[in-house]
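for the writeup, i need someone to sanity check this before i put it in the appendix. the sequnce is what the collaborator sent (i think, or maybe the updated version? ugh). structure was predicted straight from it, no edits. if anything looks off just tell me and ill rerun, i have time this weekend
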Amino acid sequence: MHVLRPTHQHACARVSIRVRTRQAGFTYLMLLWWVALSGLMLAAMAQSWVLDARRAREAELVWRGEQFRQAIEAYASVPVGEGQSQLPRRLEDLLEDRRSGELQRHLKRIWPDPITGRPEWGLVREGDGITGVHSLSAARPLNAPEGVLRYEQWTFVLGQPQAMRP
């Protein structure tokens, strides 16, 4: 029977394999650490992007709301005959106003609500006329006028004092 005795080469090979295994384990742990750290950084960036997008939609709400308010103001200032409404009955009336005998466009288009993304707006009415608009969203705004807790409370109304605007 022949017994193989480890030679110096075999011993070195085993030591070399152990060192490579330890290095591979260390590399694997470093890779896991890097993936976890990258995930945390991406999550933080995503939160920042979401917040920036909300701020942009809110700024767009203010701009669009002011466009509606100014258009209603312009519509109400047109001199009309007896029996004609000084206020628009529908938002579409702001696009084409023929009450004075000539076409007037107080608003270029009816923009969708930037908060909900839908074309519907909440309407503030006085009798059967529209005096203003508001978003239909019940979400909390980031930067609203004092006393406004939800977007649907943030109105853009004819004759509204400057304090109610952001």
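Residues 8-164 form one domain. The chain has a mean pLDDT of 84.
thx in advance!!
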